[in-house]
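Final report, Chapter 2: Outcomes

The project's central promise was a pipeline that accepts a single protein chain and returns its three-dimensional structure in a standardized token representation, suitable for archiving and comparison. That pipeline is now operational. To close this chapter, we reproduce one record exactly as it appears in the project archive, with the input sequence first and the structure output second.
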Amino acid sequence: MAIKYNKNRGKESGIKTKLRVLKKGDKVRINIIGDKKTSFYKSYKGETWSKKTYVVMSKKGRSYKVDGPDGKKMYHRDNLRLTEKYDEESEKILKQRGEKMKVIRKKQKEKLDAKKIQERIQKKKIVKDIKLKKKIPKKN
């Protein structure tokens, strides 16, 4: 029984990993939360992989040496995600757009605030007029 089980494990099992083999110098992100089975995994939170990218230094078997957040350490291929080089130009463009949108939103908010202030002033005037009319005694 154990022979059949162990036949499908290890390097000689014939089972191929679908992930591409990493080369020295490739940029990767490191899995922060660990296996999905052992952690409270929610993909929509975007906390699975490290924000910072790291460089692959060397390879040994299915593990790769990466100078990560905990120093130089070996990581299994499953815990590494190949990523592209950081695009600084796109970040600049997005930042500029964000700043423009902040200015536009600020102007819109100021207009709305001005309208609300005018409405409050109008309401106060109406209330004052009503109070004044009640205080004036009628002459017969």
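Archive annotation: Residues 33 and 48 are 6 Å apart (CA to CA).
This record, like all others produced under the grant, will remain available to the consortium after the project formally closes.
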